[in-house]
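Final report, Chapter 2: Outcomes

The project's central promise was a pipeline that accepts a single protein chain and returns its three-dimensional structure in a standardized token representation, suitable for archiving and comparison. That pipeline is now operational. To close this chapter, we reproduce one record exactly as it appears in the project archive, with the input sequence first and the structure output second.
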Amino acid sequence: MRRIAITAAVSTMTLSLGCGAMNATGGSSGASPVRGNDLTVGLLMPETTNTRYVNFDYPIIKRRVAELTKKQGRVKYANAGASASRQARQMQEMIDDKVDVILLDAVDSHAISGLVTKAKNAGIPVIAYDRLAEGPIDAYVSFDNEFVGEVQGRTLLAALGREAGSSAKIVMMNGSPTDPNAKQFKKGALAELRGKVTIAKSYDVRNWSPDLAQADMAKALNAIGVDNIAAIYSANDAMAGGIVKALKAAGVIRIPPLTGQDADLDAVQRIVTGKQYMTVYKPYPDEAEAAADMAVDKVQGKDIQFDALTQDRVDSPTNKGIPAQMVAVSALTQKNIRETVVADGIYKISDICIAKFMAACTAIGLD
């Protein structure tokens, strides 16, 4: 995957194209039959443990589709609850219902490939959302996943400062082995951490389960020793929550530097109180709006706009050169909460700084 940094100017230009500023067609060999505004977007999300899907992605996509279709377009939403078999049934239902396009965030990127082919044969374009599914995907929109891991690893090293080195023992809590993104996060993190610290224990956590992460962290504490862990790499915020529980159960008072991803509200509050060092802030409005634009443009045959939104290329295990848009990310720490999730309207300060966290918010100037 080629990493790119999307500037504000390019993002603005791209989104304006997706809004229908240009009504020309042509230039895309995979164009679907042209439809009007009365269309249905199928939206398949993978799980509910991560609160972003129901709190941000779905409502943003729903709103954007309505804007693009003069409120005539619909979004048919389903969440698999981390079950690949349930997602397969949900996708089959959408194929049977003849939705016009499917946005797919796969639970198991390999297992779903047969249904991606089935949708393609039924004339339904499939756009991979956030996770790159296998099969004949028409396009992909996500964040630069290796770069996400690099940001996590780099920020963890910065937190360690002079304590970094071969004597610094790190525990790695990686994402689900069925999620291709998890492999990329891990690869990016290891590119930063290898040779600079010692990876004492590493776990791949099925379904990104916070409970399994908590259990694995308890194992790591028993194997390495409570006082011998310099820092903990957690691939996302939900698992970081489980890790903190394990540390507290072991009597740890000062939490070592701990990473995360997704800027969940609980994680931002842990960062405020010093129980988590950082999270990767992924601007969900940019990703979700781009996905909605791509879906509507694909169905309506606005090929030039679609091509403008998908100028990058990625490879899956089954298909090469998939048109894609990769959205930039940033590290969120105590220092830039106001400039990231607050400035972008993800949370209000009042959401973060509830009564139990007010003193901590005041201490870092977030009040």
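Archive annotation: Residues 52-68 form the longest helix (17 residues).
This record, like all others produced under the grant, will remain available to the consortium after the project formally closes.
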